[in-house]
Design brief:
Blueprint lengths: L3 H44 L3 E6 L5 H13 L3 E7 L1 H11 L14 E6 L6 H12 L4 E6 L1 H42 L2 H9 L4 H37 L2 H5 L2 H31 L10
Antiparallel strand pairs: 1-3, 1-4, 2-3
Helix pairs in contact: 1-5, 1-7, 1-9, 5-9, 7-9
């Protein structure tokens, strides 16, 4: 009984180190994923503010004007359309120029301030929507906020590329770390593996317990990482409340489930690779790490 205690203690210590190591890697991957989710939601909010101004031709017939209003209200590309008469536009410009006196001759025409849906807020989509609106009879001109849309998309794409690079690097580090951890565990039992082969056990039978253990350790690591991230999310949301709107619990649960599945697959895959590596060796090669 006494001789088994050091082995059990060593096994538990190895399991603890493996779970802690994988959990830390999954925490970093989870932070990257949560940042990407938050940036996607913030990006959609920013894109929802991108739009254009449709200037109505004052010489258009009532039928053409009503048809334009109906198109703007029912178009899937338009999230919101605010109409302003020529007098309202004149008053707004007077306020912006810090001049309370309105122009005696109003040079402005009625217009619609359009806010497009995020799917159509890209520069190319803006141009196509503007071209379609310009072809309508009641439209005098269309002013597109192209530069704003281009700046928003450029910034978001740059952040996304950085996040993908960090995620790729962390995934590679996690694979190396998990593989080395599992390899050391299996190395300690290399003679047992070789003995099982000599008595007729199949490689699948020998690998199975290590893979099951890897699945369990990976899932537990995902749960630990999710718990840490949940605490971090609560702390950030309490310190900066808009985070709660940008990162709802529904999206967080999806990321947490993905971390549990990813941890299980990574650990099980590393166990399969490490066990297969030693099973292919001869008895003399078993003592090489």
């Amino acid at each position: 009984m006494k001789s088994n205690r050091p082995r059990r203690s060593h096994s538990r210590g190895s399991q603890t180190i493996s779970i802690v190591s994988v959990s830390l890697v999954l925490v970093i991957l989870g932070l990257v994923a949560l940042t990407a989710v938050t940036m996607d939601r913030v990006g959609r909010q920013l894109r929802s503010g991108v739009g254009m101004v449709v200037i109505v031709d004052e010489l258009a017939t009532d039928g053409a004007t009503d048809s334009l209003a109906q198109i703007l209200r029912t178009s899937p590309t338009v999230a919101e359309a605010q109409f302003a008469s020529a007098e309202e536009v004149n008053k707004r410009w007077a306020e912006q120029l810090a001049d309370s006196e309105l122009l005696e001759i109003n040079p402005f025409q009625p217009e619609y301030e359009l806010t497009l849906t995020p799917e159509y807020s890209h520069p190319d989509s803006l141009e196509s929507v503007a071209a379609a609106l310009s072809a309508l009879p009641a439209v005098y001109d269309v002013k597109v906020h192209t530069e704003m849309a281009r700046n928003v998309n450029t910034t978001l794409n740059s952040i996304l590329i950085i996040l993908l690079a960090v995620a790729g690097a962390m995934l590679l580090i996690s694979l190396v770390l998990i593989n080395n951890t599992v390899r050391m565990e299996i190395y300690a039992k290399r003679t047992v593996l070789n003995t099982l082969l000599y008595v007729g056990a199949t490689r699948g039978f020998i690998r199975r317990p290590y893979m099951v253990r890897g699945l369990w350790e990976g899932a537990l690591s995902g749960v630990v990482a999710s718990a840490i991230l949940a605490g971090f999310r609560l702390w950030v949301a309490d310190a900066y409340s808009p985070v709660a709107d940008a990162l709802p619990w529904g999206a967080f649960l999806v990321v947490a489930a993905a971390l549990i599945i990813l941890g299980s697959l990574l650990c099980a895959g590393a166990a399969w690779l490490a066990a297969t590596r030693y099973l292919r060796r001869s008895y003399d090669q078993m003592f090489e790490i």
